[in-house]
Amino acid sequence: MSIPKIYSFSNYNHYPTDPNPTTDMDMQDYMANQNAVLSEYATNTWQPTTSYEKGAVIRSSAMPAGVVAIATDAGTTSNVEPDWTGGNTAVSDGNVVWEMLDADGLPRSGGTMAGTINFSTITEILNIATSAGNNLKLISEGNALKVQYTDGATTKTVTLVDASGNMNVQGEITQNGQTLNNTYSLNTHTHSYAGSSSVGGAATSANKLNANAGSSSTPVYFSNGIPVACSSALGASANGGIVAQSLGTNGYVKFANGLILQWGKSTATSAYTPIVTFTYPLAMSTVYSVTYSGLFNSKEQKYTGWVKTASATSATIMILNGSGSVAPSCFVFVVGK
């Protein structure tokens, strides 16, 4: 798994009154992305009360410079980070024993290994990563690095790094009773697809997977065995759902297509004021409809009236027969975008 691209918080820091407010689902997507990025960085870093397999390589900012730790056996770390020591030492941590090694000698994947090779460090790594009695032996000849093993009564050798510092696999290897006499350069070798009839050949019984299909917000489906991204993404914003809301006494819901429904209660400033003004919880660019109900006051004195004005930010209700002694109120419902 590769490290995903980290999302910028500025794209998710929108307030409810902004034109495109951040939704709960948007924030969940953002937090999932932050967790995925952090988890990738933490994979090869020491963690408390964590299980590690034999041969696991970890680092920590508390370790001496240029040193890494390799697990000599599978186990679980302590809940407190141990005191790390220098290279070629052992550190106990819970029921894990870490072999401290200089990182300079660790092999790197791909490319060409040039310059000085720390054979003693590589030897330690192989001794840890392989079990006893497997007849493997690491041999250094000048700048070359080889592995010697026995196949029955026959001793055989495989070159890992040649005299020029290039990584290669050369020689005769016996596997499952079959002898393979091939030379592969790891710098140029092309891996077969699933179902390939020969090394580096074209696939014959399976299709190459598209590792870039889909995303954390776009699902995939399979077409002829190959994952293909769907045309529609997940989430309310892509499927007409609610993208913003405020569910108070005066509140609103906003849908992905722009439709806004708003409601609330408003009271005139006094018993003698002929107008009730309702300010929308969310400003709109277009108002489709304003309705009201129940012009009344706390003494159950009733009124009549009608909607006088409706702007992008508020509506006014004109009051008739206002003979009450207490300021009237009404409930308002607004549709717009």
Please sum up the structure shown.
The chain contains two helices and 22 strands. By secondary structure, it is mainly beta. Among the domains are: 107-189, no CATH class; 196-234, no CATH class; 240-336, Immunoglobulin-like, CATH 2.60.40.
Element order: H for helix, E for strand = HEEEEEEHEEEEEEEEEEEEEEEE
Give the strand tally: 22
Low-pLDDT segments: 107-121, 169-206
Query: How many angstroms does the end-to-end distance come to?
Result: 43 Å
Count the DSSP helices: 2
**CATH fold assignment of the domain at 240-336:** Immunoglobulin-like
Counting copies of identical and different chains, the oligomeric state is: single chain
> Which class of the domain at 240-336 in CATH terms?
Mainly Beta
**What share of the residues lie within helices?**
under 10%
* Main structural class: mainly beta
Assign an overall shape: elongated
For the biggest sheet, the summary is: 6 strands, antiparallel
Characterization of the model:
With 337 residues, the chain is mainly beta. Among the domains are: 107-189, no CATH class; 196-234, no CATH class; 240-336, Immunoglobulin-like (Sandwich). It is 9% helix and 36% strand. The strands form six sheets. Strands 7, 8, 9, 10, 11 and 12 form a six-stranded antiparallel sheet that branches.
